[in-house]
UniProtKB/TrEMBL annotation:
It comes from the Bacteria. Residues 70-254 form the ABC transmembrane type-1 domain. The chain crosses the membrane at residues 70-94, 106-126, 132-153, 174-200, 234-257. PANTHER family: ABC TRANSPORTER PERMEASE PROTEIN (PTHR43386:SF6), OLIGOPEPTIDE TRANSPORT SYSTEM PERMEASE PROTEIN APPC (PTHR43386). PROSITE patterns: ABC_TM1. Belongs to the binding-protein-dependent transport system permease family. This is Peptide/nickel transport system permease protein. It is a multi-pass membrane protein. Pfam families: BPD_transp_1. It is found in: Cell membrane. CDD domains: TM_PBP2.
Length: 279
């Protein structure tokens, strides 16, 4: 993994963004401080990213909004990955449970993800916890199916049969022999899931179904700035580019991790590098 420069650079950039989001708000103006006299100012030395329609500093709101957006995306990722991991392990290893669990997962996946999230948010009321529940529900089936496919492949190997013949219980076999071989793929799925969660979280906040103003998030910053897209485009461009950058970096990390932990992907990558050298 250390030899993969893409992984190191992308992970380093993500770590820097997280560090900025955690530390920088202490040194920036308050996100709730309004100044109507200096509203809609362009970026300057006094306000690095300009001000919004209430005269609030956009840089302060961007950094503080990152705490909410990144924190909620991480929480959604952990909840959906943990739930999907358990369902995928049980479904892939216990065939009796597979018929029931996978049919439920298929039913969830038959609905468009954003429509299902919107329906849950509207029915439960817009809030942080509603968004957490809604996005956990829509992302769990995707994680469960990926983990299940890996469990099915591992469960068919000879050493799993040898463990069963030796008298090892099924649950112990699952935890001792299957789970460690599934964990690398689960880590890759976590990174991919985090990128998707950030995108959907931004869409939910933009539609007013996530964390409500005045608490800043990158999604509701875009929603608040859309009325001033012509006169003050930085209100939309700055949080939009930030979301795009984080999703891009997460996808780079996910792709690099897959090459590091998946032997087939690693072999294909080495063949591509060899072909590039020979040509």
């Amino acid at each position: 993994m250390r030899r993969n420069r893409t992984l190191v650079l992308a992970a380093g950039a993500l770590g820097l963004i997280v560090l900025i989001v955690l530390v920088l708000p202490v040194f920036l103006p308050s996100v709730s401080a309004t100044d109507p006299v200096h509203r809609l100012l362009p970026p300057s030395a006094a306000h690095l990213l300009g001000t919004d329609s209430y005269g609030r500093d956009v840089a302060s709101r961007l950094v503080s909004g990152g705490r909410a957006s990144l924190g909620l995306s991480a929480l959604i990722t952990v909840c959906a990955a943990a739930t999907g991991l358990v369902i995928g392990l049980v479904s892939g290893f216990f065939r009796a449970a597979d018929a029931v669990l996978m049919r439920v997962m298929d039913a969830w996946m038959s609905f468009p993800a954003i429509i299902l999230a919107m329906a849950l948010a509207i029915s439960l009321g817009a809030s942080l916890w509603t968004e957490l529940i809604a996005l956990t529900v829509i992302f769990t089936p995707f994680t469960a199916r990926v983990i299940r496919s890996r469990v099915l492949a591992v469960a068919s190997r000879a050493y799993i049969g040898a463990a069963r013949v030796s008298g090892m219980g099924r649950w112990k076999t699952l935890l001792v022999h299957v789970f460690p071989n599934v964990l690398p793929l689960a880590l890759v799925q976590v990174v991919v899931l985090a990128a998707a969660a950030m995108l959907v979280d931004g869409a939910m906040s933009f539609l007013g179904l996530g964390i409500a103003p005045p608490t800043p998030t990158w999604g509701n910053m875009i929603a608040e700035g859309r009325s001033y897209l012509v006169t003050a485009p930085w209100l939309v461009v700055v949080p939009g580019v930030t979301i795009m950058l984080c999703v891009f970096l997460l996808n780079l990390v996910g792709s690099a991790l897959r090459q590091a932990v998946d032997p087939r992907a690693r072999t294909l990558h080495e063949l591509q590098r060899l072909r590039t050298r020979t040509t």
